[in-house]
Write a structure and sequence with these properties.
Layout: H1 3-10, H2 24-35, E1 46-51, H3 54-63, H4 73-76, E2 79-86, E3 92-93, E4 96-97, H5 105-122, E5 126-127, H6 135-142, E6 148-157
Antiparallel strand pairs: 1-2, 2-6, 3-4, 5-6
Helix pairs in contact: 2-5, 3-6
Amino acid sequence: MDDLMAAIKNRRSVRKYDGQTVSTEHINELLEAVRWAQSWANTQCWEVVVVQDAEVKEKLAEAVYKGNPAKKSMTAAPVVFVLCAKYKTSGYYKGEVTTKFGDWFMFDMGIAAQNLCLRAHSLGLGGVVVGLFDHDKTNGVLNVPDGHDVICMIPVGHPAKPSAAPKRKEVDEFTHYESF
């Protein structure tokens, strides 16, 4: 198995961390991974807020809905990457939406998040993509300007322990050729 496929198969959602800090060098490596994410017509609709301050992380945790298993991760992780999207850029041409699905930002943001998570894994770090939270409250905590929105938060740190892969469908369970 090549290195890329190994990373894809072995990366996990990590919610518990061992307490070590994440170096500035590693933070910059993760931001570089976002930088090189592909996007619609190279629009690069993302903005990233890097949060290390304990007080700000606590406010972000308060915005995560009760019952979300990632809630504690927000304060336990040494760093939280908050991925924000700029509206009306991805999927637009000359100010007009060009796709059936409208603004394409969620697709681009997913690619950026996956790049960040795979790079974190390659550095011996782990993270989890958090999407179940009060977006308006989070926007307020981080002073996100109009025309932008927080899409997801990714707490990152050194995993407390390794975890096993969850069960996956077999390829033939989701693959169709020539027609659905």
